[in-house]
């Protein structure tokens, strides 16, 4: 659903750019809390995963899957990011992916970057996170319910993004097209794409839940395993038995290394981008198909980065298409991982630096000598 240059006029593109910039600014602040900054905090587990989540979204977006005759779809990733690393960090993950795709791979217009971040990042993250958390409140407290809730949240987020694009097009579309046709076509095809998004999201979340449930940010309160010590029925004095220690298991979970999961995730990400991407569907994605069928693309402009050596997900001057595409995918994963991880490390360190000051500001002051 990458919107190219020329679909939306300049004033509305500028407006969505302001919305996107504000969302990123708010997310930078909110992500500092999600990523944490001190020993024992939840961010100790979230921070190492956030850069990998961005790289994984980039890689899986290269795997277009067929959804109808002559139409394909790909992961948007907002639901996956929101569930695994939190809504603020999720917006940043998707924003990093979209920025690098536009600058390095000429995918998604540069003047439409604000539109794409607003649509594919902010809308999908907010909708998916809200649906996921609402479902967790009413579903039984079981791990399988977390996977099911992630499926529904991802499924809903994709047509929600299609509705958002239609609204933006109604405000600033550059061609005269009946909005009813655009709405029906966009929502119809993206419901089908949403099924693929939901399957990928649920499979990924389910895999993480199976091995490290403490790393699923949006369900951490539901998946926390608490250790309770009960008095033995053979004890002579039950009152003297040890009291429950509910915090024992979470502390142990915090100290577990994320390295095995991180390495496994990186290997899967590189395989997707460097190998499986060669077998992706070559059919146009949902937006491209709707645009071609309804004349939305009549005023599409050439991409400003069309001369990039990585444009169209291939390395310039490498004739072998499999090698060219695979190498471009690996380069993209590396760039996304480096930029994403760099952003999240900086945010985490800033949070670590401000945490002592915040604690000192809220701590009660010591009594003065005159008050003693």
Question: Please, what is the oligomeric state?
Answer: single chain
What proportion of the residues form beta strands (DSSP E)?
A: under 5%
Helix content: 55-70%
The major β-sheet equals: 2 strands, antiparallel
The CATH class assignment is: Mainly Alpha
Tell me the Rg in angstroms. 23 Å
Shape: globular
Furnish the topology, listing elements before pairings.
Blueprint: H1 10-35, H2 43-61, E1 65-68, E2 71-73, H3 78-85, H4 87-105, H5 113-138, H6 143-172, H7 179-211, H8 220-223, H9 248-255, H10 259-274, H11 286-294, H12 321-362
Antiparallel strand pairs: 1-2
What can you see in these coordinates?
The chain has 372 residues and is an all-alpha fold. It has a single domain, classed as Orthogonal Bundle (Arp2/3 complex 21 kDa subunit ARPC3). The protein has 12 helices and 2 strands, in the order ααββαααααααααα. It has helices spanning 10-35, 43-61, 78-85, 87-105, 113-138, 143-172, 179-211, 220-223, 248-255, 259-274, 286-294, 321-362, and strands at 65-68, 71-73. It has a two-stranded antiparallel ribbon with strand order 1-2. Helix 2 (43-61) packs antiparallel against helix 12 (321-362) and helix 3 (78-85) packs across helix 4 (87-105). The protein is globular.
């Amino acid at each position: 659903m990458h919107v190219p240059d020329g679909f939306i006029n300049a004033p509305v593109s500028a407006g969505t750019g302001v919305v996107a910039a504000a969302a990123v600014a708010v997310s930078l602040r909110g992500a500092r809390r999600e990523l944490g900054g001190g020993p024992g905090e939840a961010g100790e587990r979230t921070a190492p995963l956030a850069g990998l989540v961005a790289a994984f979204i980039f890689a899986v977006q290269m795997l277009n899957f067929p959804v109808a005759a002559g139409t394909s779809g790909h992961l948007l990733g907002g639901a996956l990011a929101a569930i695994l690393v939190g809504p603020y960090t999720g917006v940043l993950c998707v924003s990093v992916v979209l920025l690098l795709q536009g600058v390095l791979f000429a995918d998604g217009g540069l003047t439409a970057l604000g539109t794409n971040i607003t649509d594919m990042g902010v809308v999908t993250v907010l909708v998916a996170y809200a649906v996921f958390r609402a479902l967790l409140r009413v579903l039984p407290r079981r791990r399988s319910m977390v996977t099911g809730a992630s499926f529904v949240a991802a499924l809903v987020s994709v047509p929600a993004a299609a509705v958002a694009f239609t609204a933006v097009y109604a405000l600033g579309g550059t061609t005269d097209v009946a909005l009813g046709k655009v709405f029906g076509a966009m929502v119809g095809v993206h419901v089908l794409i949403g099924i693929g998004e939901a399957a990928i999201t649920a499979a990924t979340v389910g895999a993480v839940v199976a091995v490290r449930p403490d790393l699923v940010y949006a369900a951490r309160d539901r998946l926390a395993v608490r250790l309770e010590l009960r008095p033995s029925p053979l004890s002579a004095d039950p009152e003297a038995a040890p009291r429950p220690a509910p915090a024992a298991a979470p502390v142990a979970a915090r100290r577990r290394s994320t390295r095995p999961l991180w390495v496994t995730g990186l290997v899967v990400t590189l395989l997707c981008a460097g190998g499986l991407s060669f077998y992706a569907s070559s059919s146009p994605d949902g937006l491209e198909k709707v645009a071609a069928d309804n004349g939305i693309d009549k005023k599409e402009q050439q991409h400003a980065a069309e001369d990039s050596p990585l444009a169209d997900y291939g390395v310039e001057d490498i004739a072998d298409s499999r090698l060219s595409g695979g190498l471009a995918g690996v380069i993209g994963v590396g760039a996304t991982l480096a930029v994403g991880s760099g952003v999240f490390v900086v945010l985490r360190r800033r949070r670590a630096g401000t945490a002592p000051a915040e604690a000192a500001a809220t701590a009660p002051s010591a009594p003065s000598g005159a008050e003693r």
